[in-house]
């Protein structure tokens, strides 16, 4: 995994830097991370590719400043005032000739002429303009709220579509004997109605034939609400996503806030719990803008949509069997349905991503625009759940070939769909992510971890197929952006003790130029323990478990060391990589623990990101079981190979890691002498629907999965020392979780446990005082119990 460091990257060799000689302290580790230096956050190219823009957090503030820096290196310039009015923005879109690019900055749409640099601002308002896309003929469309607008150099800006979730004024009224009797008997009423109808029909006819008029409104009825929409680049077609009007979204929670600006107790509304009304299903409409007509698309043509993957559970739970099609939603998550729609630049083809609400199936279909019918192109089925990641798709430059990511082989790979034929461009026991079509349309750039699961590089493959090429050799690539002309890549990369930094490399991988090093001298001057990347053999059929091991440079012969096991959060997250860790404070804490005589092991247990589908779904219906097996294997390995002391073992982690600390202490009493569960889940029935229902289904349908997976069920097993720490305004894992566990431990008459509460902290702590107090308690717990 580790490679020789190029001379141009020598500044990243952290262990060879000058050393302060000072011992680490908790005060320093848990201080505001400004002392480390800010990571490079978002980065993007200037229009001509001669310089890069990026953002950095301002010291002592939450402000993000924008900097400009030459691609050749040198010093950066912070942009303020009028200089900010001329900059480009991230995620631009390019026209077919790559002569112009459009982007959104501060909610407004801009067009940059790439031939001369001229910048044209198309909108200036308080609306949030989004999703610009070029058509093949040079028109640009974008979305404002539920409305769409179109721009051409000749016509300027015009409203492109007008869809309303209302009843059409021309719709026949409901039957009413009194009204019908009067119209039949009173001739004047008949004549007035006929004149009104004729005027309306003539007005609509004129509107359709007069190109200077705004498009006629399309009415979808008053029983739906518009959730999202996606206009074809030529403005002819509009796909509209709707939900039922007034759909029951379930009872929301009320979170108390005790320490407030007002001085009084306040309450914040928070999400519903799992199974208490899932996300409402979607309908999909094809709108013919020119003819002001709409047709609802039928999902029944999708293969397997009538199958019920949960039929056995439904029968066991004595629930009614599924009837008809399963409910579906458009898009890969709940936040952006239109991200599940991709139009070709010539507007002749469109693809949509349809996901079953039970998340066992994902379909990508195209649409026969003339016939208003879905045409299935790809189905991905998973008996556990479809991944939240690896759902990108789009069109090649020929406007006819569909590309997509799929985990169908067990790992995320890139595929082309031509008609009814699907062809893999990549394969192997590694993952493709963030695919980007090259400027010339001949190849894809993407992130890959070919060499090791935690070693991420920019890779490239031709659209015609062939070998995959690693373009970079940086080990820890975070993301990348091709330059507008496609000749270079702007790469954000990091290392164990180096927050994300910026480099430029030629598109073929040559000519690496390092642009930034934002680390502060005090941080760089310390000698940090470079983690040893290890592979722990699994005794439970999992192959090997990848980990990071922290220990003294020289282990004392014959000595055994107390063990601390760290469990990362999120479940589906990768912490064993060559990148700057999500848990950078914890990594420094591990350095302190080693300084104090411990050894530390951090594992990417089953369910972690980066290891393929089977690793991800091993926890289906049994959260906390495979992961604990992996940590028990890690413990055995430390004892056998790294002088670990089996009789002095502690475990800690936050969020999912806190949940796992509970499972370890409750299910394996005596094995772990101490544990700390931070912001922990104690009962999965209290967590949110989208995450939990994927893994455990719902409490009503699969109560056994929740019983198997919830620490509250095992609390009677606690016999060792436990610290619970939780922010009281945590709107992710509610503080209520820890309160419920505290009450359960009280009822069980358990001792050797404590609950530390933090009134001004949410799920991720933001105040150094809270960080210090929490980790002081963890350190003192381990000192008290493991030595």
Helix and strand composition category = alpha+beta
- Poorly predicted sequence stretches spanning 5 or more consecutive residues: 1-19
| Continuous helix count | 13
Mean of pLDDT:
93
Tell me the distance between the termini.
34 Å
Strands of the biggest beta sheet: in what spatial order? 38-39-41-40-42-43-44-45
Helix coverage percent of residues?
10-25%
The rounded Rg comes to 29 Å
Based on Cα principal axes, name the global outline. globular
Describe the structure.
With 787 residues, the chain is of the alpha+beta class. 17% of the residues lie in helices and 31% in strands. It contains 13 helices and 45 strands. The protein has an eight-stranded mixed sheet, sandwiched between helices. Strands 21, 22, 23, 24 and 25 form a five-stranded antiparallel sheet that branches. A four-stranded antiparallel sheet has the order 1-2-3-4, with no helix packed on it. Strand 22 (341-343) and strand 23 (350-356) form a beta hairpin.
Question: Which terms summarize this structure?
Answer:
787 residues; alpha+beta; 8-stranded mixed beta sheet; 5-stranded antiparallel beta sheet; 13 helices; globular; disordered N terminus
Structure summarized in a few sentences:
Helix content is 17%, strand content 31%. It is of the alpha+beta class and 787 residues long.
Helix and strand topology:
Blueprint: H1 26-29, E1 43-45, E2 51-57, E3 64-70, E4 77-79, E5 93-94, E6 100-105, E7 108-113, E8 119-121, E9 129-134, E10 140-144, E11 147-152, E12 156-161, E13 163-164, H2 177-185, H3 187-209, E14 218-219, E15 224-231, E16 237-244, E17 253-257, E18 266-270, E19 283-288, E20 293-296, H4 311-316, E21 328-330, E22 341-343, E23 350-356, E24 361-368, E25 373-381, E26 393-395, E27 402-406, E28 413-418, E29 421-424, E30 432-437, E31 443-448, E32 457-462, E33 469-470, E34 477-482, E35 488-495, E36 498-506, E37 513-514, H5 521-524, E38 532-537, E39 544-550, E40 561-567, H6 584-595, E41 599-603, H7 613-617, H8 626-641, E42 644-654, H9 656-667, E43 674-678, H10 689-696, H11 703-709, E44 721-727, H12 735-747, E45 753-758, H13 768-785
Parallel strand pairs: 13-14, 40-41, 40-42, 42-43, 43-44, 44-45
Antiparallel strand pairs: 1-2, 2-3, 3-4, 5-6, 6-7, 7-8, 9-10, 10-11, 11-12, 15-16, 16-19, 17-18, 19-20, 21-23, 22-23, 23-24, 24-25, 26-27, 27-28, 28-29, 30-31, 31-32, 32-33, 34-35, 35-36, 36-37, 38-39, 39-41
